[in-house]
Amino acid sequence: MRTIGAMNLAQVAACFALVYNSITPAAFWSVNNFLMTGPKAFLTYSSSVAAGAESGIDECKHQFTWDRWNCPESALQLSTHNGLRSATRETSFVHAISSAGVMYTLTRNCSMGDFDNCGCDESRSGEAGGRGWVWGGCSDNVEFGERISKQFVDALETGQDSRAAMNLHNNEAGRRAVRETMKRSCKCHGVSGSCSIQTCWLQLADFREIGNFLKVKHEQAAKIDLEKRRMRGGNSADNRAAIADAFRAVPRTELVYLEDSPDYCVRNATLGLQGTEGRECLQSGKNLSQWERRSCRRLCGECGLRPEERDSETISSCNCKFHWCCTVKCEQCKQIVTKHYCSRRERNRPFNNKRKHRAQNW
């Protein structure tokens, strides 16, 4: 079977671009029609790449559900040649979480034996890991997941400008997040359960933990100010070297961006932004986080809007009973549900539209 490394770079880029851009519900599985005509290696990993990209999208939407920017469809285009030329803090998260999702899924499926050419990582099996424990078991094969995902995802960036450099940097930060959140699991061995020695292996964390990890990185993202550096026009060798030096100064584990974010409070059709008017927010409820409890202030109040209370009626099955034999009959119960949505104020009132981020310029 041909390996990914033997593929033409343009083929890999076209493959992943189609995989990622076909995630929308109406066209998600159309990618298979394309992959059937491509190299056999595409077929081997295509479903994992597609599933990984989809998990990245889902996690992005979860992480930003109660933010002004809520991971809209307009932001979910990875390749720069398909229109995503913004270089904001949010763009950095999209690249990182998508790259992490692809690596995560490839790694997991490899360890589960879904691919003929890989399985558990047993490279350190039998080695002493620390006091009272040795490496063993079935560690998740992140080496494989990282290598294959990098060739799929990074192949999208064919340019050599600052935006391509930014995307590649954030792709790598996403992959490193998968590594940094891995957990050590152990099994005890010994007479009568004494646990005199343990066998341990590395496992992937839950993908939600990776999303949480990258959300913090998003808040702490570093802005690279290329205007402060000597840059020449065009795509000269000197210019490329200056770009590389600028990004090299930031650790590969950190997210980077080039442009300040637009005002997500207001609608901007050109940028594909819907604004926060009409968005739902939370004012009460059980087990709400502090971030969720402040969503009405963030989405409405700080955007010059007010939370409007709306009641809606829901009908659901209830009081279900089993009848002999053998049916279940339920009543239809009505319930009034109160929700809050951001609406225009009756009068213009001053408001404070500040974004708080722990960032530093490089």
From TrEMBL:
Keyword Ubl conjugation: no
Subcellular location: Secreted, Extracellular space, Extracellular matrix
Recorded GO CC terms: extracellular space
Xref: Pfam families: wnt (PF00110)
Source organism superkingdom: Eukaryota
UniProt keywords, alphabetically: Developmental protein, Disulfide bond, Extracellular matrix, Glycoprotein, Lipoprotein, Secreted, Signal, Wnt signaling pathway
Keyword Lipoprotein listed: yes
Any one GO BP annotation for this protein: canonical Wnt signaling pathway
InterPro entries, A to Z: Protein_Wnt-8A/8C, Wnt, Wnt8, Wnt_C, Wnt_CS
GO molecular function: cytokine activity; frizzled binding
SMART domains in the record: WNT1 (SM00097)
General function of this protein: Ligand for members of the frizzled family of seven transmembrane receptors.
Family, per entry: Belongs to the Wnt family.
Protein name per UniProt: Protein Wnt
Species in which this protein is naturally found: Scyliorhinus torazame (Cloudy catshark)
